Amino acid sequence: MTERERTIALWQEKEAAVRAKLAEPGVATLEQLKAGSGMEFLQKIWDGELPSVPIGQLMGFVPIEGEPGRIVFQGTPGPQHYNPLGSVHGGYFCTLLDSAVGCAVQSMLPKGTGYTTLELKVNLIRALTDKTGPVRAEGKVIQVGGRVGIAEGRITDAEGKLYAHATTTCLIFPLP
After folding, report:
1. pLDDT for res 81
2. pTM value?
3. Alpha-carbon distance 113 to 109, whole Å?
């Protein structure tokens, strides 16, 4: 077994363990969102205490790792993600990266605070296909202040090859 094959097997094992813990998809209530910090809210989703995120189910990705300021999602692109040209649609890249960088910002927010993406810039470096295998989108906070959060992200494969990178600017606000 090659190093790449070993890494893919480990990644798939981790993904299966995460999927087993996630609750059915749904949307958390505002009260649930306001009940703790951004990191506490995300952890409750990952622990299956709150509904999993519908977009993750639709696009086939899950959170793999998380700590304040750094969040990693994993998915395996397939033919269902293809555009008419026979490669993975740019929307897959953007959705995976928006989730990683947005949640990285959310993971730094205090109780009673929310965010929304104001700007997302994505650079696609190379094509994804159903032969790529699992990929990970890692989002890392650059700066979170009282009104604005900035983060960067990267999509890489099991060999560490870069497929896309992104930056985001998020608006931070008190929850009603």
Report:
1. 98
2. 0.96
3. 6
